[in-house]
Specification:
This is FHA domain-containing protein. This protein is mainly beta. The chain contains one helix and 13 strands. The chain folds into two domains: 29 residues, no CATH class; 102 residues, Tumour Suppressor Smad4 (Sandwich), CATH 2.60.200. The chain is elongated.
Length: 187
């Protein structure tokens, strides 16, 4: 039968199994032990208009990046409603992952109702000059012009995309009238 004992800090323990309180335990020893503290790191915000980052070893790079040495802008999202109202987000060729984590291609930090990773995906296909919006694998829904996005849809100029409490206006740069040519980068 267990014999419950209460220590001076109010913890109950079985004194048949323990000689002292297992919760307070090593605190009575004469060694310097500190409480474990959660590491709080605030990730630095990724500048959307910053110079291109050097390619990371082993990281998949887009066709434009490989040929030109940079990921040129092909369009923008402009926040028209929400915590980041007035801010623009660059869209580059191929897939752009959208979320609020700084590791995302398009990071919308001002809205906690947006999933950290892959809330949605926007792509630009340089072969057919089309932009598409894909549902992500986040918890929240995505709307395009007030319609729920359930399958990939072609984006048209000035479509309104809604994620969480944020509304983004789509502004294309590349299309039928202009597109970046995949020229070899000059060394």
């Amino acid at each position: 039968m267990s014999k419950l004992t209460r220590c001076q800090n109010g913890h109950y323990y079985d004194s048949n199994n323990h000689s002292g309180c297992p919760y307070c335990g090593v605190q009575s020893l004469d060694i310097d032990i500190q409480k474990t503290m959660a590491k709080r790191s605030t990730p630095a915000a990724r500048k959307q208009n910053a110079a291109p980052r050097p390619a990371e070893e082993g990281r998949t790079m887009g066709v434009f990046h490989k040929k030109m040495g940079i990921d040129p802008v092909v369009g923008w999202f402009v926040c028209i409603e929400g915590g980041d109202r007035g801010r623009d987000y660059r869209i580059v060729a191929e897939k752009n992952f959208v979320g609020r984590d700084p590791s995302m291609d398009i990071c919308i930090e001002g809205d906690e109702t947006i999933s950290r990773e892959n809330h949605t995906i926007v792509s630009y296909n340089p072969k057919d000059h089309r932009f598409r919006l894909y549902p992500g694998d986040g918890r929240g829904l995505v709307y395009i012009n007030d319609e729920e996005l359930v399958m990939p849809m072609v984006l048209n100029p000035y479509d309104v995309i809604e994620l969480g409490e944020t509304k983004l206006l789509f502004v294309p740069f590349c299309g039928e009238a202009f597109t970046w040519k995949k020229e070899e980068k000059k060394e």
